[in-house]
Write a structure and sequence with these properties.
CATH class of the largest domain: Mainly Beta
Structural class: alpha+beta
Shape: elongated
Number of strands: 26
CATH architecture of the largest domain: Sandwich
Number of domains: 5
Distance between the termini: 78 Å
Number of helices: 17
Largest sheet: 11 strands, mixed
């Protein structure tokens, strides 16, 4: 209920009447005072407020059992006397916030709901939710009382197609047009100073703050606003300081958007409205007390807080307990290998209020709305896609009685790691997702499951999920393209293919998946890059240089027909490097050199010869320094940059020598074998030929290829090279024999 507590993310999903045979000892001790009402919450005031307030506040998880207009709420004290209250927030299918009179700061109260034909209570404060409408008015039987403590923030969706409002009336129209799901959430808060939406997407939303501020001294008070984007504020129903239209907070962050007014020492009703479109979010109301030199944040203590109350139990008119489902947002994970997607973990539990009950002998089976199920009183569940999900829980008693509860849950985009939003970990998510029934997932979620398993290194399950997704008829072309690429793995990848061990039974299959991916990819430039991988894979893995050349010629022809643009020029450069790699592996070194020269000519911008010489000259030294201090990732990145920017140098062998040397220290011996075999052919007579042969021999030894190990040692000895590597080879040969 209060915004500085993680409990704000606990939303009740359902409440139902239920004769619970395990709860006979918990019979209600407060008589039922509202005839005709079906439900109530017994509430204890558990934490007193400050400053002598006579207001307590509570969140009631009615989840649709209350009247949609909220007219059926009633509050009674333990003695059955009607208590004045205000319905400060009401979401018809979820929850409500109530402020009620409580002068003592303690006690037990009963909040009734569940009467669809009830008129509005005479004790409820009359509240106009219109922008700038001012404070609530006492109900006819409220003895003139309204709750003069508490500040409530509500967030809701904002229409995406509407311009930034220029007047309070235009903002009111935005609120009336709020798209589904409408209200994101609400809570009592301590201040008007926020940069995120804690209950929903932080893009395209509206915040409304309404409540009370105490100005402890009379005189001239200044108030300032800083917002991104439009903001409107009122005090006692009168304009305070508006900053309408489209803008950032920058021109108001030093208090420039301000107003100064005379006030007496007293409580005042404050309203602040803020609408956000995209990017950075700011909602801030500051003040300058009488005599102060500068504007600053309003101290929390100027917003009087109500006593905090807690629901102890939910009951029905026949005196039986009821239960709820709670769903708490735990954390989320943004995929590490792509710029989009989100995995979100929620914790579901059965709850009966603070006065808990023993469900150890009951069975609870969950259906999370995404095709997945689980059993247990409390379950962590990971949603693979955002959107709405209908959650069901079925509780079965030891004697066979059953109760079903349900309520939709919204999984929204999370853009911040601040406040209530926490970064999750793949290690925590993996065992949860590993238990999923892949066949029961939607196609969109199945695609995300395949990506998830690929990201955590569970390739067999990733391939299985990808194959299942491809077998369905309703996947998007972009998603199906990704599934083909996932199955293809690093086949043909400019970096990944070096470390692959030849698998003849998979190579043609990988080529087929790359071809399918290129055909499905709706972005022509990305399709060219996929074809670059196909060219490299066909020419190197399959050894079909002629077929690779035909593929390259076809790609060039299609790009020319479509018109050469800067993006397509960059993509065709990738394809040209790929055919160069094919020729390099085929030992057609002159053709490879010509391909690489063409690729360098396609660079944007073209690098001048003198600049090229300087940059290339510095790279071996940089790599050697990184290698010497074991910064292998940095060294590998430098090698990759060298090969990408100056591919022609590959035909001289130097970048590939460093690649093999780094991979040897990383103990990726298949990469060493591929690399150093080529280096030896390219770099005969160079200063690093002997070391390349030695590292190749060691790689064969590590992979258990003893014959190749001995042959490579012998070739090093017979090559006529001198130095320590030849001596080591002689020693190793003597031991091998």
């Amino acid at each position: 209920m209060f915004a500085n507590r993680s409990a704000h993310f606990v939303v009740c999903l359902s409440v139902a009447s239920w004769v619970m045979d395990t709860c006979a000892a918990h019979a209600a001790q407060v008589p039922w005072h509202a005839k005709g009402w079906t439900h109530r919450a017994l509430v204890d005031v558990t934490q007193p407020g400050e400053g002598g307030v006579d207001v307590a506040a509570v969140r009631i998880e009615h989840v649709g059992l209350a009247s949609p207009d909220g007219n059926d709420f009633r509050v009674f004290d333990a003695g059955g006397r009607a208590v004045p209250f205000q319905l400060t927030h009401h979401t018809p299918d979820r929850d409500a916030l109530l402020s009620f009179r409580c002068a003592a700061g303690n006690g037990t109260f009963a909040v009734y709901f569940g009467n669809a034909i009830a008129p509005r209570a005479p004790t409820v404060a009359i509240f106009d939710a219109s922008v700038g409408a001012g404070p609530p008015q006492p109900g006819p039987a409220a003895d003139g009382w309204i709750p003069r403590a508490g500040l409530v923030r509500v967030t809701m969706r904002r229409p995406r197609d509407a311009p930034n409002p220029l007047t309070p009336g235009e903002l009111q129209k935005l609120i009336q047009r709020a798209p589904a799901p409408g209200i994101d959430g609400a809570a009592y808060v301590a201040n008007i100073n926020d940069a995120i939406n804690p209950w929903g997407d932080s893009d395209y939303f509206i915040s409304a703050y309404r409540g009370w501020i105490n100005l402890p001294q009379p005189g001239t008070w200044g108030f300032c606003t800083a917002s991104n984007e439009a903001s409107f504020s009122f005090i006692d129903g009168k304009t305070l300081r508006h900053w309408p239209g489209r803008h950032t907070e920058q021109r108001g962050k030093h208090g420039e958007k301000n107003v100064e007014l005379e006030f007496t020492r007293s409580l005042h009703y404050i309203e602040y409205y803020h609408e956000e479109v995209l990017l950075y979010q700011v909602a801030f109301l500051g003040c300058k007390p009488p005599g102060a030199p500068h504007y600053t944040a309003i101290p929390d203590g100027l917003f009087p807080q109500p006593h905090r109350a807690t629901v102890m139990r939910y009951e029905t008119a026949d005196g039986q307990r009821t239960v709820t489902i709670t769903a708490k947002l735990v954390d989320s994970v943004w995929p590490t290998q792509r710029p989009h997607g989100q995995y979100t973990r929620l914790r579901f539990a059965i709850s009966a209020g603070a006065d808990d009950i023993d469900l150890s002998k009951w069975t609870c089976r969950w259906q999370f709305g995404d095709g997945q199920t689980a059993t247990g009183a409390q379950i962590d569940h990971v949603y693979l896609v955002r959107g709405g999900h209908l959650v069901n829980a079925t509780l079965t008693s030891p004697t066979g009685g059953a109760l079903s509860l349900q309520r939709p849950v919204a999984v929204f985009p999370i853009e911040h790691l601040a406040g209530p939003f926490v970064r999750g970990a793949y290690d925590d998510y993996r065992p949860i997702v590993a238990a999923y029934d892949l066949a029961a997932l939607s196609t969109t979620a199945l695609v995300e499951a395949a990506r998830f398993f690929g990201e955590v290194g569970d390739d067999p399950t990733a391939y299985e999920a990808a194959h299942q997704a491809l077998a369905r008829a309703n996947g998007s072309p972009a998603d199906l393209c990704d599934m083909h690429l996932l199955i293809a793995g690093d086949a043909g990848d400019v970096h990944g293919f070096w470390a692959r061990r030849a698998a003849p039974h998979l190579t043609e299959l990988a080529a087929e998946h790359l071809r399918e991916a290129a055909e499905l990819q709706p972005d022509h430039v990305i399709a060219v890059r996929i074809n670059a991988r196909l060219i490299r894979h066909v020419g190197i893995e399959l050894g079909d240089v002629a077929r690779a050349q035909r593929l390259y010629d076809q790609v060039v022809r299609e790009v020319r027909e479509a018109g050469l643009t800067d993006p397509s020029k960059s993509a065709i450069r990738d394809a040209t490097i790929a055919i160069g790699d094919v020729h390099l592996f085929a030992h057609r070194f002159e053709e490879a050199g010509e391909d690489y020269r063409t690729a360098e000519a396609l660079a944007q911008p073209v690098i001048a010869p003198q600049v090229r010489a300087t940059r290339v000259g510095s790279m071996p030294e940089t790599i050697a320094q990184q290698f010497a201090v074991n910064q292998l990732d940095a060294a590998l990145q430098t090698v990759r940059q060298w090969r990408e920017v100056f591919p022609l140098d590959q035909s001289r062998g130097t970048p590939l020598y460093w690649l093999g040397k780094i991979e040897s220290r990383r103990e990726r011996y298949h990469a060493v074998i591929r690399t150093m075999t080529l280096v030896i052919a390219l770099a005969r007579g160079t200063e690093f030929e002997a070391e390349a042969r030695w590292l190749l021999a060691l790689a064969y030894q590590k992979t258990g290829e003893q014959d190749a190990y001995v042959q490579t040692l012998a070739a090093l000895v017979d090559a006529g090279l001198t130095g320590p590597f030849r001596e080591q080879a002689l020693t190793a040969l003597s031991k091998a024999e």
